[in-house]
């Protein structure tokens, strides 16, 4: 099977998002989301696109931020240090990683239906985080009109709409 980095990121991200909306295992979701996020971030950097998340951090604290951002990811995939350790998995970090991963993917290639669903759901759940820009206002208005408060019905609605339109 021949697969590109972009294909791998898309498949990991779409699978993580599907698991997220269907109440899948949080460890699997986080691991897939983190892997996809890292690949997409690397592809963007290779294409000369800045990492706007890191650029928000004071330069002398960037390494510390990266360690904090990757702490759960590294814990879940390595056992070379502290094999008896435990961690409190913060699922809000996973949701943020899914949202940012979908946004970053969309800056490289056409976003998928699952990515569209994740971006929409995140905006519905966190309209207060959106900037007062035309895009931010449009997403806030969409969030205000949404009557979906649970992930699964939102997911099904997006898929139903995508089936009616072919794709989003």
Strand content: under 5%
* Overall outline: globular
Report the count of strand segments.
0
Helicity, in percent?
55-70%
Total of DSSP H or I helical runs spanning 4+ residues: 8
Q: Round the Cα radius of gyration to an integer and report it.
A: 17 Å
Number of domains: 1
Separation of termini? 28 Å
Chain oligomer state: single chain
Profile the largest sheet: none
- Structural class designation: mainly alpha
Poorly predicted runs: none
What's the rounded overall pLDDT mean? Answer: 84
Q: From N to C, what is the helix and strand string?
A: HHHHHHHH
Describe what this molecule looks like in 3D:
With 168 residues, this protein is mainly alpha-helical. It has one domain (5-165). 68% of the residues lie in helices and 0% in strands. It contains 8 helices and no strands. The chain has helices at 5-21, 26-46, 52-55, 62-77, 91-106, 113-125, 134-145, 151-165. The radius of gyration is 17 Å and the shape is globular. The protein starts with a helix and ends with a helix. The model has no long low-confidence stretch (mean pLDDT 84).
Short recap of the structure:
This protein has 168 residues and is mainly alpha-helical. The chain has eight helices and no strands.
Keyphrases for this structure?
single chain, 168 residues, mainly alpha, globular
């Amino acid at each position: 099977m021949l697969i590109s980095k972009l294909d791998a990121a898309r498949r990991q991200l779409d699978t993580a998002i599907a698991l997220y909306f269907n109440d899948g295992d949080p460890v699997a979701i986080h691991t897939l989301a983190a892997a996809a996020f890292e690949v997409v971030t690397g592809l963007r950097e290779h294409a000369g696109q800045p990492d706007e998340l890191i650029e928000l951090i004071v330069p002398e604290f960037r390494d510390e931020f990266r360690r904090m951002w990757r702490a759960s990811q590294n814990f879940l995939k390595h056992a070379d240090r502290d094999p008896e350790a435990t961690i409190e998995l913060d699922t809000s970090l996973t949701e943020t990683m899914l949202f940012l991963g979908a946004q970053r993917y969309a800056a490289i290639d056409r976003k998928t239906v699952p990515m569209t669903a994740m971006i929409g759901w995140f905006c519905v759940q966190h309209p207060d985080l959106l900037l007062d820009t035309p895009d931010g206002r449009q997403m806030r208005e969409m969030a205000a009109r949404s009557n979906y408060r649970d992930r699964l019905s939102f997911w099904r609605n997006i898929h139903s709409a995508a089936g009616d339109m072919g794709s989003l």
